[in-house]
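Might you be able to check the backbone structure tokens below? Thank you kindly.
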Amino acid sequence: MVARPRSARLSSAAQVLPSPPKRPTVEGLGDDVGAAELARRVADHVRRLRAERQLSLDQLAQASGVSRAALSQIEGARTNPTLGIVWKVAVGLGVPFQALVGAPEASQTRLLRAGDAIALRSTDGQMESRLLSAFGAADRIEVYELRIQTKGLHRSEPHGPGTQEAVILLTGALRVTAGDDKHDLVAGDTLFFSANLSHSYENRSTRESRCIDIIAYGRT
């Protein structure tokens, strides 16, 4: 038996090293533990909130624009809902997005580790949203990290009356449209706007655009 050179043995060993784990996302994860946990969390919240409001599946379907069949799948935790679907259900129930994905904590201090927040992707995979504010940490305020791929365009439904939004662009270039107003942002810019209008985020750079999105809901 001829011994291989040491350099060849090292090269062979390097090929079997495990690749670093990817940050979990809902879209395309299948049976991933994080996605399954989020699906169960959304299911529990939707069932409870719908019961509290005495809404049938048909009534919630009409209010949210999500089909009755899809709502049934969500409540049964038989699907991993996408970003757009969760937003629509939240609007239909009249609650903040965080009310469907957050997990309540008893402590007065809340630490959200980098890997704790599962990212939600848009249906086309062009935008990833990660909730950075722990459930109940701030009344009527939510903080998100948004990552939008090159040429990615995400349209958001109008939020409730009095809702304000702030977008802080960290990298890339972003066009934010709120109603009829268009604003082109570069890294370091911050845009404030009323979010009770249809609005959208478009990546106009040649690389991923990343921003912090802060939503402050109006009092009802």
